[in-house]
Amino acid sequence: MWEPPFSGILFDRVARFSRVTQIDKRGVGLSDRISEPATLEQRMDDLRAVMDAEGIERAALIGISEGSSLSALFAATYPDRVSSLVLWAGGAGPPATDELRSWMLPGVEDAWGSGQIMSLLVRLEDPTDIERLAKLERYSMSPKMARALLSMNLDNDLRDILPAISAPTLVIHRTGDLVTQRDRAITLAELIPGALRVELPGDWHLSLVPGAEAEALDIIEEFVTGTPPAPDVDVDRVLTTVLFTDIVGSTRQLSELGDHGWRAQLDRHDAMVRVQLERFRGREIDTAGDGFFARFDGPARAVHCAHAIIEGARTLGIDVRAGVHVGECEIRGDGLAGIAVHVGARVSALAGAGEVLTTTTVRDLVAGSGIEFVDRGQHSLKGVPGEWAILSAKP
To answer: pTM for the full model?
Structure first.
């Protein structure tokens, strides 16, 4: 887990705001090998033993994937030892059918050690990392143990114990996760009293692409600590989503309404845009004339916000167009600068009334979000090198 492609990425990030204790299951990783996988009850005892040995009275538990079952059971059984609970890419529901088990289990045992199984669970930046995943599989457990562990996980049904959890709980998952289906994540959150569920765009279970889990980890940090992550003082560039909107036909409306009437109309428009920016967690960067420039930490929210602004403007008798792009921006005080800003502005200028245009970068980052894209062809963007593929986005 500390070698590429994992490189301890998740552990290092969590260690920025906490003391991290990572626990291997019995028979897995650095633990001694055993003939059968440990039950959830045994693993719960192991977790308690580790906490006792380390002098940890109470801890925030972060259970990832099948580790969420152990974490949930521990939180329900030992509420006084859990300060908060994060269930990441986990779910709840009935045990797997015999048909699903007969299809999955032989395949896992046959392929374990090749890297193919882990490649279904994690999103990689470099396809050649499949060889390193194969190494991870071989080092972690035998093919028979992998099959036995999966079989046990397919049998788990913790729905009856979830209502007993009293710790503040965060359930975080991806919309298009093929390993833990969306409905199981929803069920998990609904059965835990007061649980907060955060659904992020994406079609992966867990990503090892640098920065891909940044939003999830920021959310986890704020949930566990109660404080938003502090920006790194030495960072002056950031990957961000930019949104540009402007009113179509503003000159015509100005001539029809007159200065006073247009000013009142513009005030109503601006108030509506700011409501939608707050709703979708966008941050206003600038406004000039009849246009807005805002930033988001997720492209899907920017696209949804753009359409909400367009619909809100229509109720005011105004036509709005929008452009969305994701790229690296330079932070200048409260503002942003860089080529990504210019691209976003140029993309917006290509849009027609009621249209949201994006670059292919946006499409690639919101896979599984349900947003549909229509090709609008290749375009030259004024002042920006090269040809750009432009897409129309609809939620």
So the answer is: 0.58
Q: Tokens at residue 368, please?
A: 């599984």
Token digits for 49?
């033993």
Instruction: Enumerate residues 6+ apart whose C-beta is below 8 A from 160.
Output: none
**pLDDT tens digit at each of 395 positions of the chain:** 777 777 788 888 898 889 899 888 888 877 888 888 888 888 899 999 999 998 999 999 999 998 999 999 999 999 999 999 999 999 999 988 888 788 788 889 899 999 988 888 888 877 678 888 898 889 888 899 889 888 888 888 999 999 999 999 999 999 999 889 999 999 999 999 999 999 999 999 988 887 889 999 999 999 999 988 876 544 477 889 999 999 988 777 767 777 778 788 889 999 999 999 999 999 999 987 789 999 998 899 999 999 999 999 999 889 999 999 999 888 877 888 889 999 999 999 999 999 999 999 999 999 888 999 999 999 999 888 889 999 999 98
Domain boundaries, the chain: 9-225, 237-394
Task: Give the residue among 312, 326, 240, 344 at the shortest CA–CA distance from 283.
Answer: 240
CATH superfamily of 9-225: Alpha/Beta hydrolase fold, catalytic domain (3.40.50.1820)
Domain 9-225 and domain 237-394, same fold? Reply is: no
User: What distance in Å separates the CA atoms of residue 328 and residue 338, rounded to the nearest whole number?
Assistant: 7
Q: Annotate 223-255 with b (16+ C-beta within 10 A) or e (fewer).
A: bbeeeebeeeeeeeebebbbbbbbbbebeebbe
239 Cβ contact partners less than 8 Å away, ≥ 6 residues apart: 211, 326, 327, 328, 329
- State how far the Cα of 306 lies from the Cα of 321, in Å rounded to an integer: 8
Question: Would you give the end-to-end CA distance of the chain in angstroms?
Answer: 37
Give 127's contacts (C-beta < 8 A, 6+ positions apart).
Answer: none
- CATH assignment of 237-394, among 3.30.70.1230, 3.30.200.20, 3.40.50.2300, 3.30.1360.40: 3.30.70.1230
